[in-house]
Amino acid sequence: MPAKPSISDKTPKTLTREDEITRFVDLYGDDAPAKMMEALERQFLILHNRSQVALGLAGIVITTTGFSGRLIAGTNPVGQTLIVLGVSLTMISALLVVVGVLHLRWLTQQPGDLLRPWLETCLAYRDKKTNFYRAGIILLLVGITLYVAAIAVMLMNPTAAALPMNR
Known about the structure:
The chain has helices spanning about 5-10, 15-30, 35-75, 75-100, 115-155. It is mainly α. Helix 2 (about 15-30) packs across helix 5 (about 115-155), helix 3 (about 35-75) runs antiparallel to helix 4 and helix 3 (about 35-75) runs parallel beside helix 5 (about 115-155). The chain is elongated and about 70 Å long.
């Protein structure tokens, strides 16, 4: 009796770029580059929409800091360090998303005279943008975590100097 497959055997493997190109060609055929471009455009649209959400979250952190950053930083040096690091990482994440993901180069501008080389270039471009997005999201999450930790420090250490009525 054959061994029962384990959960790890069922984990899907990520396709290589060459396998993905073959999948595109198998799905759409060699004579359907317009349909391939539509599929790629949908992938880029998803990436750009998610980037907009990340920028919105970064904007919330920055706006909130404008209103309460001084109060949080007035708690103690730990609060100051956490808020500065949190906002800094949030800004770096926004920079990565803007420069790495929202930078435009049209699919029709991608080099490659034949279908497969063109697909290779487009997928490499998509993967580069995806990597920038992932790095931006990681930095954003760390930045927000530090920012929330700064708020927690403030709430756990209320001091007279931090209260707005004593300014």
